[in-house]
Amino acid sequence: MPSRRFADGEVVMGRWPGSVLYYEVQVTSYDDVSHLYIVKYKDGTELALKESDIRSLSSFKYRKSQSSSSSPSRRSTSRSRSRSPGRPGKGRRRSASQSREHKDDKKKTIQQANLAVLVLVFLFKPSENNTRRYNGEPDSTERNDTSRIILEQNLKPDMETERVLEQYSLRSRKEEKKKEERYSEKKIFDTIKTIEKASLKTTELEFGGRIGTFMLIFFLPATVLYLLSMCKQDDPSLINFPPPLPTLESLWEARVFGVFLLWFFLQALFCLLPIGKVVEGLPLSNGRKLQYRINGFYAFILTTAAIGTLLYFQFELHYLYDHFMQFAVSAAAFSVVLSIYLYIRSLKAAEEELAPGGNSGYFVYDFFTGHELNPRIGNFDLKFFCELRPGLIGWVVINLAMLLAEMKIHNQSTPSLSMILVNSFQLLYVVDALWNEEAVLTTMDITHDGFGFMLAFGDLVWVPFVYSLQAFYLVGHPTAISWPVAAAITVLNCIGYYIFRSANSQKNNFRRNPADPKLAYLKFIPTATGKGLLVTGWWGFVRHPNYLGDIIMALAWSLPCGFNHILPYFYVIYFICLLVHREARDEYHCKQKYGLAWERYCQRVPYRIFPYIY
């Protein structure tokens, strides 16, 4: 086996792939199988290089000193030649001017070469820039933006002086050359802008592309209506498919739509209240950070107080149960109108404000996935507001309405044990999300996905009306369970919640402060982005332990409904499919983002969600 020449940690000169340029790098590791060195550039990029592409620093320093030592002799030689007495004076003047022109041409060539290198660096690393842009990280994007800003400033001449010089031809030869250089720089700058604009386009389409997203726009509302219609049946079995279709008159009522609008704008008012801390989100593609007010838990307290006041004045909250289908249709109609507004306003948004996953140029696809990343009305962020407020808090209110409806319909003085378990488990989940509202700023919904029909419908319709399916089912199909069974289900939910919360807390604390002494027991794999991949704790058990906790909790929410029908377990099946899809997206983006470090992590942690299974 050949011996390695360079040791780990040694600083050497590494050749950039596809070019003849060498940069200072540090050797991080060596692969004995492929005989490749893993090196890290100063900007954090990690690459695998052959030994022939690596040179020691001493060889470069020697050449530099050698060339500098020989330069005086060359200068003295040229000086002696220019002063040769055998040449006439006129010849000497012509030789000097030619020398100056030669120097100017040489200087111009060097400047053009430097600008060409700038373009080459931009062309050789497009995927890295895009990957970091997807994940909201500044890194090289900020440096490119800074370089573009400096280049733009260099390209802005004094317009008045330029006009006078053009009109009266007062421009010297030196200024003419500067003008040519500026023109050359401007051409290269325009080329960079064209390349960057093309790189912002979404090339890989998800959800089945244009055809798949077009079908989902109709399939998702139809699925919600189907599930709610089945729950209304005496026998919600799959054999009874399809359920009787409701009349159009029974699906719409103006008063119900007005109540929904009142609820939406009440939550918007709570969101705008100047309470709670203001935090910054992850850096955008231009390096800017948006500010968010974290007051979701306060909004939940105010909503609880408002609902308590309505109940005190004998307001019939089971009105939600009686008009549940109409509320779902009203929310769906509102989400469609909101999506149309979002797409129209996104057409006027700047290129850098568009979502990396929703900028394909296809109307249907961009409408579904969301064209603009962070649509705002002033400081009011529409996507961040809809992510947790109207739908998630509305989910708790709907569950409470189902509990009161069960007591009224079945003439019970107290709710059933099954209904209490469902309400308690899901209340814990919602309160946890609102208490840790700041953590949502690092999710793909905020950093990558645009705000379009997918998120608008999901936040306002799918979450409150599908996630409350178990409570809605129990009103018409009461299920009695014993205390030991209830205790076992409670333990299962607590296990799922513990995995979910501890895994997320472990990750968030490590991201916030990797040097925290409390996290000294955690081991990680360093990456080129400056972040680390945890290989101990929950993240060394499976790659997505938070998803494992989610699935266990979803199962605990459905078990109180019994096993008479599969309908209450639709949420579990859907949740598994959703998380597997998200996990596939995470795997793809992490591989693009972390490169070789992610491959090492996958070898260290082979299971994705379910240990020893998947």
From TrEMBL:
Keywords: Cholesterol biosynthesis, Cholesterol metabolism, Cytoplasm, DNA-binding, Endoplasmic reticulum, Lipid biosynthesis, Lipid metabolism, Membrane, Nucleus, Oxidoreductase, Phosphoprotein, Receptor, Steroid biosynthesis, Steroid metabolism, Sterol biosynthesis, Sterol metabolism, Transmembrane, Transmembrane helix. One of its GO terms (cellular component) is endoplasmic reticulum membrane. The chain crosses the membrane at residues 207-228, 254-275, 296-315, 327-344, 455-475, 481-500, 521-542, 562-581. This is Delta(14)-sterol reductase LBR. It comes from Steatornis caripensis (Oilbird). It is an enzyme of class 1 (oxidoreductase). Its main location: cytoplasm. Residues 4-62 form the Tudor domain.
